[in-house]
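Ticket opened by: R.M.
Priority: normal
Category: complex prediction / small molecule

The reporter submitted a protein together with zinc ion and asked that the result be attached to this ticket for the collaborator who will pick it up next week. Submitted input follows.
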Amino acid sequence: MAFSNRRGGVSHSPYDSLNLSWNTGDVAGDVIDNRRRLFEISGADQDSVVVSNQVHGHKVLRVGPEHSGVGVTQDSELEGADALVTDQPGMRLLLLFADCVPVALADISQTVIAGVHSGRAGCQKKISTRTIEHLHEHFGSDAANVIAYIGPSIGPCCYEVDENTALSFAEDCGEQFVLRGDGRPRLDLWSAVEHELSDCGISAGNIENVRTCTCCNSNQYFSHRADGPKTGRQGLMVGVA
Ligand SMILES: [Zn+2]
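Result attached by the on-call engineer:
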């Protein structure tokens, strides 16, 4: 598993510099160069990578060799999947982020992995739970054998929302993940996702939650909240060795 930051690429401001998405206005050729750099550093073969078409939904998609290379140099044909799953050795799943919560899952009793894009909407739609259910249904995975990584994303320090959004989030994910003090309510996506994974049966010792805020660290990571809509995307890449 690898998680990139915004450094070491060729894109110019405001996409500087290792931007992995052309969906926010960056030059596609620069993005493809950046992706190649990431693949080279992480030892991935470009033809083994699959890039999803993320829509803040709750669809989980199993991918296999027939999907190899999809979405790498042109728009992904995969229909709106915010979680990708595979058991194919050598394949790499690439998901893109600018504040949303990246989740990597691996069943260590067999070679089954998943990458999940869980922003506020995904969290409310229980995309991580759906992914773990998918692992169980399709591969017989027991959550006791699953390890999880929750990567850099917007933290409760910075994720202010309006009252209606806070109420909706509290209803779906739990009031304890809405922080209230002076000013606007703030959401704790990190704890909400960790709680969701625990609820699915993943033990606390098998969850690594890095609790690094992309908005506080926007010099290091792309952040929609800090930079505005014209910014880049970093990537979570998950693979079976
Ligand atoms: Zn922050």
